[in-house]
Specification:
The complex is a heterodimer. Chain A is mainly beta. The relative contact order of chain A is 0.13. Classes of the chains: A mainly beta, B alpha/beta. Strand 1 (43-44) of chain A pairs parallel with strand 1 of chain B, so a sheet runs across the interface.
Chain lengths: 670, 175
């Protein structure tokens, strides 16, 4: 993308904004119209499309429970891949998200926040949001997923630097009974789930769910290890995965108690570390859990209070076998553990005419951030143990004022102050203007600054050099509803990241002196029909650069999404078709061997399609879904996070992904 | 790449210009119109004597209508200043003069009516549950219509004026 073109788009949009302003004066003041005339007035019916619930002035993407069923989504990563301007990258350990100004797998953790019913789920060591089978929630329990691109630090502080995934879980009453579900899928996978949900006469709502997943995984081939010494590149039976999940929610009047637990075990077939032996057991375990208690009440008519207490914990276990054990260390064991709790008191005050104030204070105590490395001999005796401990206490204050200027204009001004025990205090401001020239049209312009604190892993890796990182973001959003069933969303943005850690050869250390810029444009059209047909199509163009000013790795210039769903067979079944286009993107620069720096590989553009058939009705309580992912069996590769060369001297800058795969789910309600 | 970009910007421009060029009068959003109806319900009803300073219009479970109502803040209804409250719980509903109950709070309707008893609170919804509330707003073609439950109003000691009842699509009355 050339900047000249972008400038032109800005000018165009500015012109339209001015045009809108000019005719804004014609809007009628409703409060002075006689009632006799009002009842004769035609109205613009409220949108029949899903509406965003977060009050963020950015171009929010929404996926509902209906979409989750129609398109056969099974993980948050599937949901993300269907959203405008977003994609994920898998390295056989985790799914990493990519989007505006971030694409490299290592850039994801700590910069995207994932919230479940208002609780920030990231662990306290890497600040990673888990979106695959290591994630906390079964998608069958999700009512909607909102992705809020851009900065969220004004509301949530650190970690919400580049975006927020907001998950709202279903109410017990939407199940109204017991549901059992059984899944079978490719690579020897199966899953069972039992869910109970009910709303009682007195208004109490209960939801409880337990599930287990087991994938055999089979063999995987990695060309970079295709030598006789490393089993000709075949990792045999080293891609298995298992998880167990628990979820519970109870709400009564203003009180909500919620808890979730996930324990995911996975074998990693890729050989993700330089020193480990290919085709040996490399097992990782991620255990995440939280408890969140919230009490909401109205203290009179003008003051609303929300009090929240939360407790969370995370455990990472890893086991690996080293290729070279001449130092007496044959196996490595890692156990990282994080525990935290926090208290958040938020108020919404409507004391003043045309002002809505949101303010509060949050205290968070990351009281345990422990890393332990243990090295074992061939006889499994401990040779060496290394341990590191960190902790952090953070106190935060926040205030936002939503100011209504008139029927067309409103402002949203806010700031959050975060003071962590080991860092200098930081302010994250946001200023937004919202303009509604007509009932169908909304413009939002915003400027915000956000930051990310160095996490425990950064402090362990970079020592004294670990420092906060910043972003300043500007965004212009247009939303227009042609009809209640046809909506256009457009967004133009520019992000400037600063104080990113880069290697400085003179200092021979990492210094926080890098900065980079990203800009882009996203457009989306969404339409639904009374008959149950729904279409959504989007395109995103972006120009993201790295700290050297070159194109950011794993950040395609163009992304396209197309989703279509319609009922078939007398409305008994529903078809969901998904098309995803990912433009060409750069792989990571590989480490040099023999003194030559290899060219950075460029992966070609690719298109994938998924097809799902799901039942719309229940027969004797039974319903079912069937999905084919990668429908046309495309052979494709994604950018690999690994940059070293194995003994074969073949670079491993890409990883091969699955061809066509199948999934079947049968549910029974009683 | 550049051409693509150009095409999209022209498309974008077209969408907006095509729409803003028309001469038709500015249509009113559904939520704004509902807010206008609610305000007028208040203005065209005789309210029992009260020593409150403010006239409280509350919404529960519908933030859009709540936001639209804000433009009436500070206006006067039976000599009292209008205050708009967007509630999130049932704790303060007795302090309201008008209570609009949105979709998401409909499951709690039974508890709301029980709690309010015969207090002078006009309950309004946009769901077809006239027998349980004071007034219902519903779409009728391209317009909005409303129905009034006089039995409810009588119990709550509210007197809708004749020029309000004249505009109602229907009136529920047992005798």
């Amino acid at each position: 993308m050339r900047f000249g073109t972008l400038k032109m788009v800005f000018v165009l949009i500015g012109l339209q904004l001015a045009g809108g302003l000019a005719c804004a004066g014609t809007a009628r003041d409703l409060s002075d119209t006689p009632f006799e005339q009002l009842v004769q007035q035609e109205i613009v019916p409220a949108s029949r499309l899903a509406q965003q619930i977060s009050d963020s002035p950015s171009a929010v993407a929404i996926v509902t429970a209906d979409d989750i069923r129609a398109y056969g989504y099974r993980t948050i990563a599937d949901v993300i891949n269907g959203m405008r301007g977003l994609y994920t990258t898998y390295d056989y350990r985790y799914q990493y998200m990519g989007g505006r100004s971030f694409g490299v797998p290592g850039d994801y953790a700590g910069r995207i926040m994932l919230m479940i019913d208002g609780y920030a789920t990231q662990d306290s060591l890497f600040n990673q949001a888990y979106i695959d089978n290591s994630g906390l929630i079964d998608l069958d329990l999700v009512e909607r997923v909102e992705y809020v691109p851009g900065t969220g630090s004004v509301t949530y502080g650190s970690n919400a630097m580049l975006g927020i995934i907001n998950i709202v879980t279903r109410q017990g009453r939407s199940f109204n009974g017991t549901q059992v579900a059984g899944d079978v899928f490719s690579h020897g996978g199966r899953k069972e789930r039992l869910t109970y949900g009910k709303r009682f006469e007195n208004g109490a709502d209960v939801l409880f769910s337990v599930s287990a997943l087991d994938v055999n995984g089979g063999n995987r081939y990695f060309p970079a290890y295709d030598t006789p010494a490393t089993n000709n590149g075949i990792a045999e039976g080293r891609d298995w995965e298992r998880n167990k999940r628990l979820f519970g929610k109870f709400s009564y009047e203003g009180l909500t108690l919620e808890g979730a637990y996930v324990d995911r075990n996975k074998a990693v077939p890729t050989n993700p570390a330089y020193a480990t032996a290919f085709n040996s057991l490399f097992a990782i375990r991620d255990e995440n859990a939280f408890l969140n208690a919230r009490y909401e009440s109205d203290l009179g008519l003008s003051l609303h209070s929300s009090t929240r207490f939360y407790y969370g914990q995370y455990v990472y276990d890893a086991f690996r076998e080293f290729a070279d054990d001449s130092d007496g260390e044959k196996y490595g064991q890692r156990r990282f553990e994080g525990k935290w709790w926090g208290l958040d008191q938020k108020f919404v005050g409507n004391w003043f005419k045309d002002h809505s104030l949101v303010f509060g204070v949050e205290y968070r105590n990351d009281f345990r951030q422990n890393f332990r490395w243990r090295y074992l001999s061939a006889a499994h005796e401990t040779v060496r143990t290394v341990q590191e401990d960190y902790a952090r206490r953070t106190i935060s204050l926040y205030l936002t004022d939503e100011i209504r200027l008139n029927d067309q204009w409103s402002l949203n001004i806010g700031a959050r102050y975060d003071d962590a025990s080991d860092l200098a205090p930081n302010w994250s401001p946001r200023l937004a203007a919202i303009y509604r020239p007509a009932a169908e049209t909304t413009w939002k312009a915003s400027y915000s600054e956000a930051f990310r604190m160095p996490n425990a892993n950064d402090r362990s890796t970079y020592g004294a050099m670990a420092a906060p990182e910043y972003v300043a973001a500007s965004e212009l959003v247009l939303q227009h509803e042609f009809t209640p069933r046809l909506r256009f969303t457009g967004s133009l943005y520019r992000y400037k990241r600063s104080r990113q850690l880069v290697y400085n050869a003179v200092a021979d250390d990492y210094l926080p002196e890098g900065s980079s810029t990203s800009r882009g444009l996203e457009v989306e059209l969404e339409r639904s029909w009374e008959s149950g047909v729904r279409i959504r199509g989007s395109m995103a163009w972006q120009d993201a650069s790295n700290v050297q000013g070159a194109q950011l790795a794993n950040a395609p210039h163009v992304l396209g999404k197309f989703n279509l769903t319609f009922p078939v067979l007398a409305d008994q079944w529903r078809v969901g078709f998904e098309g995803q286009y990912l433009g060409s993107r750069l792989a990571l620069v590989q480490e040099e061997t023999g003194g030559s720096i290899p060219d950075q590989k460029r992966l070609g553009a690719m298109a994938l399609a998924n097809l799902t058939l799901s039942s719309e009705r229940k027969w004797y309580g039974f319903s079912a879904s069937f999905s084919i992912r990668n429908l046309f069996d495309r052979h494709y590769e994604v950018v690999s996070p690994f940059t070293w060369r194995p003994a074969s001297d073949i670079p491993q800058e890409t990883l091969r992904m699955d061809g066509r795969s199948y999934w079947f789910q049968l549910r029974c309600d009683f | 790449m550049r051409t693509l970009f150009l095409l999209v910007s022209i498309w974008l421009a077209g969408i907006v210009l095509a729409d803003s060029g028309g001469e038709r009068p500015a249509a009113i959003a559904e939520a704004d119109m509902k807010a206008a109806y609610i305000y007028n319900f208040g203005a065209f009803t005789e309210w029992p004597e009260s020593n409150r300073i403010s006239f409280n219009i509350c919404t529960l479970g519908d933030d859009k209508v709540g936001r639209s109502l804000r433009r009436y803040e500070g206006k006067l209804i039976s000599h009292r200043r209008v205050v708009v409250a967007r509630l999130s719980s049932l704790a303060a509903i007795s302090d309201c003069q008008i209570l609009f109950i949105g979709d998401s709070e409909l499951p709690n309707l039974g508890r709301i009516t029980h709690e309010l008893g015969q207090q002078a609170v006009l309950t309004v919804t946009d769901a077809p549950v006239l027998s349980q509330v004071g007034a219902v707003i519903m779409p009728e073609g391209q317009r909005l219509a409303f129905e009034v439950n006089l039995d409810y109003c009588k119990r709550a000691n509210l007197k809708p004026q004749s020029n309000l009842l004249r505009l109602a699509k229907s009136i529920r009355k047992s005798d």
